[in-house]
Amino acid sequence: MNNLAVAFAVSASAHAEKPALYWGDAQFSYAHFARSAAWLARELAGRFEVQPGDRVGIWLKNRPEFVSVLFGVLGAGAVAVPINNFLKPGEVGYMLADAGIDVLISETALTEAFAELAAARPGLRLLVVEELPEHPPTSESFPTAALNRTEEDLAVLIYTSGTTGRPKGAMLSHGNLLHNVDSVREILRVVDFDRFVLLLPMFHSFMLTVCILTPLLTGGSIVLIRSVHPAKAMLQEMLQNQGSVLPAMAALFRVLAMLPPGVELPLRLCISGAGPLPAEILNSFNARHPKVPLIEGYGLSEASPVVSVNPVTGPWIAGTIGVAIPGVEISIQDEAGNILPDGVDGEICVRGGNVMRGYWNAPEKTAETLVNGWLRTGDIGHRRLGDGYYAVTDRKKDMLKPNGINVYPREIEEVIYRFKGIREAAVVGEPCDRRGERPVAFVSLDEGVIFEEKALLAFLREHLADYKLPKRVVVLPALPRNATGKILKTALREQLGS
User: From the CA atom positions of the chain, what is the Rg in Å?
Assistant: First the structure.
């Protein structure tokens, strides 16, 4: 397959009348999405004069039309730019300007912001998904321009979450994403009767590759959850539509680990990604659902995004991100780019066909990140002695240095999670005149818990060296998170005034 649009057209032709997506009681066939995407592609090329390589913004909430829009943009030969639907107009405007987006596809619920966006970017044109025909013409096909796109051409521009500074646009080619889909399909043993449960935001790279592209290019299906609240309704949708694979984040698996007796998951596999999976949550989930493997993986937008995962057949090792997926290499390097031996912490570096072409309009950042053929991830970790599994210690930028000694917040957080009554935990550094930096812990609590800071600090003192102990513990109703659920340590540092 030379590009994603062609790959989808082939899959849709082979599975035309099969349900591609379940949405509550509604079902949408492959044929429906193929016709709808082709109609949109021709609208973009005709009425909106979109040329191959033009960037088209996709600003949508989770809804079935996201699939039509994604493949419609690709079918026009354009570059899809999924935009976080939780962002404010000013934040969206930055991406529109940075990516040079002149056409934005959105929905009525979000269009109140369009006047502000258009004022900041004159000439911006809007297409709302409500314009898509309910019954698309059967004779539509993708424009010829789409068929000529190659694996080297840019397909998707994914903006990083911006947890540190302005978000950057990771340039993913058709080949990058097709490579990652093939690797994910192999490592997760995906088959055409799998149904992927999709409940995280569709604009996120994790969902884009694992929950949309992988099932639809394999002939599988998507179970798109209408709302994750309450958990009972979410479970009912999973049961009703027979979901088999659940890619999600650690916070959700914590909820599922607390399900009452008698409520069982209709799944063959769960994958935790888009952030670390605390060992305490993994152990609790395994104890509650021993027949449903929960495997932790690792990835980043710049790698399309999947890099590694614990093998489906095991062993599943808590606190690890498993092994590299097929066609991808991982190395642990020091600052100078030297490969470090097993057991030694260094920067996790990735090489393979899934690695981005670079950052959009940011050659200096690209040069800092793509070095000697390797993607320097900014994450610290090591390859374990004996089993060869990889473990992430922490983000390079989150590492603390009290008295000049390296301290990884995740190590402290893992111990905090073991203290009864802790729902969330995050550790950041606070400037200290005497030590240079001291850890501070932020936590939120389970409902009804009476918290004693001294008791937690005493517990931590039993398990951590003194220089790793938090200076204090700050209790919040909930820790700040971005749209994909990742804890925003930048916001926590701001509370400290650092």
Answer: 23
Beta strands in 226-272 (DSSP E): 245-248, 269-272
Residues linked to residue 126 through DSSP beta bridges, in sequence order? 104
CA atoms within a 13 Å half-sphere pointing along the CA-CB vector of 70: 28
Please name the residue ranges forming H helices in 16-64.
30-46
Distance, in Å, from the CA atom of 441 to the CA atom of 129, rounded to the nearest integer, reads 44
The SS3 call for residue 250 is helix
Residue 363 has which token pair? 């050659």
CA distance 282 to 319: 9
Amino acid at 495: Q
Dump pLDDT digits (tens) for 378-394: 999 999 998 999 999 87
Nearest to 430 by CA among 454, 402, 410: 402
| Range in 49-53, 282-286, 357-361 with the lowest mean pLDDT | 282-286
Considering only CA atoms, which of 25, 7, 3 is closest in space to residue 15? 7
| End-to-end Cα spacing for the chain | 50
Reported as half-sphere exposure (CB side, CA atoms, 13 A), residue 32 has a value of 18
pLDDT in tens, 406-445: 787 888 998 999 999 999 999 998 887 667 788 999 999 9
**pLDDT confidence tier of residue 18, bands split at 50, 70 and 90:** very high
H/E stretch holding 412 reads helix 409-417
pTM metric for this prediction: 0.86
DSSP bridge partners of 442 = 426, 474
DSSP 179-200: HHHHHHHHHTT--TT-EEEE-S
> Minimum mean pLDDT among 70-74, 207-211, 272-276, 375-379: which range?
272-276
Nearest to 392 by CA among 325, 335, 347, 333: 347
How far is 304 from 265, CA to CA, in rounded Å? 29
Distance CA 153, CA 77 (A): 9
Q: How many CB atoms lie within 10 A of CB 99?
A: 20
Amino acid (one-letter) located at 372? N
Q: How far apart are CA 369 and CA 277, in angstroms?
A: 25
As a residue count, the chain comes to 498
DSSP annotation of 73 reads H
Alpha-carbon span 296 to 298, nearest angstrom: 7
What is the torsional sign of CA 347, 351, 354, 355?
positive
Task: Spell out the domains of the chain, with CATH numbers in brackets.
Answer: 4-383 (3.40.50.12780), 399-496 (3.30.300.30)
Dihedrals phi, psi of 141, to nearest 5 degrees: -145, 165
Pairing of strands 103-106, 55-58: parallel
Helix H or strand E segment including 458 = helix 453-463
pLDDT at 396: 72
Question: How far is 488 from 491, CA to CA, in rounded Å?
Answer: 6
